[in-house]
Records
---
Amino acid sequence: MKQLVIASRESALAMWQAEHIQARLQALYPGLSVSILGMTTQGDQILDKTLSKIGGKGLFVKELEVALQEGRADLAVHSMKDVPMNLPDGFELAAICTREDPRDAFVSNRYAALADLPDGAVVGTSSLRRESQLRARYPHLTIRPLRGNVQTRLRKLDDGEFDAIILAAAGLKRLGLSERIRIELAPQESLPAVGQGALGIEILEGRAELAALLAPLNDAVTAACVRAERAMSRALNGSCQVPLGGYAVQRGDMLTLNGFVASVDGQTFLTARADAPARYADALGRAVAKQLLDKGADDIIAALDL
Ligand SMILES: NCc1[nH]cc(CCC(=O)O)c1CC(=O)O
């Protein structure tokens, strides 16, 4: 293989991620030419509705998959957080790269931390996961929807529409915007989204030579963690239409997975946790999902009116 084309969304964050993978590939294979094909997805275009209402994560990856299918690109770089739990037939993840900071970040021009926000302060987020956790811990806050790419969200904060917003720390750091982070939220305070902070590389199934070329970009620890998180979410039928979070860490050979499912108002809040050797990542994810279901997660999900 002499040249590769990376399909990417055109947002600054997506382009940073594509360029990061481009640079890693060029460092690994100096003779290889790697270019980036930027494209807009429906998820980028429809900004007046929350993601959960317009059909969720698939909207950010569909156009990229079409480019792979039509041979216009060889690989697509995604934030794993945006990748649906079940890939369409004919696609596979060739690599999951080393995870960046997985935490959510508190961003505000006036307040140093969530606990400093006064009664009725307005916090922007369109993530049901972030909303349910905020409502559970800080019922006195007002949560308002906030969509758009990272820069758009920061501009809305700066325009005074919100007292604070919550964003993924990874996105801010990648864009050189770490100074906007007032404080990072510990996983116990805001459990990250499944796959948050990790990049994934998607290709057409059956391209063995391409898969082998991309294999060195895979990070085994991140891959095991993300596999456990995604297995949990899949078993819960999770999407961004369900307020759920899942976050795994690996110490030695042992994975620990924490998960939660909550009602959007944060009134019902179910948590679960389990450990297993990394080679049982999928089973670990299913076991945590089972705990959550046994505690009544299916009632919460059924009541969501999807
Ligand atoms: N939902 C959009 C999205 N997808 C991935 C990231 C951040 C980067 C990552 O998690 O790898 C973001 C922005 C955010 O949630 O603030």
---
Amino acid sequence: MSNKVLISPSILSADFAALGQAVRDIDAAGADMIHIDVMDGHYVPNLTIGPDVVKALRPHSDKPFDVHLMISPTELLVPLFVAAGADYITVHPDAGPHLHRTLQSIRAAGVKAGIVLNPGAPVEQVDPVIDLCDQIMIMSVNPGYGGQSFIPSQLEKIAAVRAKIDAHVARGGQDILLQVDGGVNPVTAKACIAAGATSLVAGSAVFKGAGTYAENIAALRGDTANSKAA
Ligand SMILES: O=C(CO)[C@H](O)[C@H](O)COP(=O)(O)O
Ligand SMILES: [Co+2]
């Protein structure tokens, strides 16, 4: 795997009246993936994007669509996001009803599967399903809204999951992206990377940061030569 950290800008912070343009712009600015936050007004107290919007955005970029499902129950809607063009589907273990089966069904559909640990969730949630994960995401804010502040206690969890992934790979298991989502800016990004993250989600820091989208993305990678936002 490349040492370069992947940047997955969250379109939650984009202009919802111009999402296609936003996806084209972050693609051109060097995003590695496009993070799409799906909220149902039930698992989290906010409503956002459904499968028809994901399908409508699909022609606007060839980059992987990184779909973060904050919906409960999860299982019934997974096929709709697969059909809409998701490349990664990441689910919350407590959204239910059957985490193991949900991850199996995502992978059986040819899509990469991930789990998300909320700030209050124990790191042990990873253990029973690590074989089925292509991505593990640590939420560094409580899910539901963009623009919140990074919760520093999650750095310890990032490091603990890094150790679990490294041990898993050493046993011959598949490599797994370690993603962080929430309150990621150039300062917190540095701490996340030091703790072992390999993929960073950022909404506010990309769409509302100090520089151009390309400069904001470069700043998250720690590439200060190409950034005005660091
Ligand atoms: O999943 C999310 C919220 O539930 C978002 O991906 C996340 O909050 C990104 O926004 P920001 O970078 O502004 O914190
Ligand atoms: Co998200």
